[in-house]
Amino acid sequence: MRINIKFTMSNLDDLRQIGFKRAGVWISKDDDGIIYEEDKEFTNDENALYALVVEEDVRYVGKTARTIRDRMRNYEYADSSQKTNIKIKGHIKDLHEKGKIVKVYSLIDDGLIHFGRFHLNLAAGLEDDIINKLAPEWNEIGT
After folding, report:
1. What is the distance between the alpha carbons of residues 14 and 97, in angstroms, rounded to a whole number?
2. Residue 53 near residue 12, CB atoms below 8 Å
3. Does domain 11-134 have CATH number 2.60.40.10?
4. CA-CA distance, 25 to 69, in Å (whole number)?
5. Helical (H) or strand (E) element with 85
6. What would the pLDDT profile of 79-127 be if each residue is shown by its tens digit?
7. pTM as predicted
8. How many whole angstroms separate alpha carbon 41 and alpha carbon 51?
9. Are the C-beta atoms of residues 23 and 50 closer than 8 Å to each other?
10. Roughly how many angstroms between the first and final C-alpha of the chain, as a whole number?
11. Contact present, 36 and 72 (Cβ < 8 Å)
């Protein structure tokens, strides 16, 4: 008898292979809100690509020219004019109500990639292709 076992990588494994590391986690607040708790090593890094992850499933991929902390604050304090931020915050809160943990992973641009005398922003260069290949659930058109 032959048993075939197929191991599949999670889409988070795909991101880890190119250098994504855990940057923080979303936690619930007493007032029914959410707050981002960052890992200390990512405090001041700018030009990052980030992923919101539940278990091993990448749910959202985005980029920021600011720090990860500053970008996550936009989700935490989303106002009525920020449709994407409101939607993502709602997803995070819904998952917390179901007992799920939402982690944040990021890939920081180290500034070493250049094309001639021009810096190539790693986050901007990878975002579209990662979204196309992994198809994160929350990266809908218009989100």
Report:
1. 28
2. yes
3. no
4. 11
5. helix 83-97
6. 888 899 999 999 999 999 999 999 999 998 877 888 899 988 888 889 9
7. 0.86
8. 17
9. yes
10. 49
11. yes
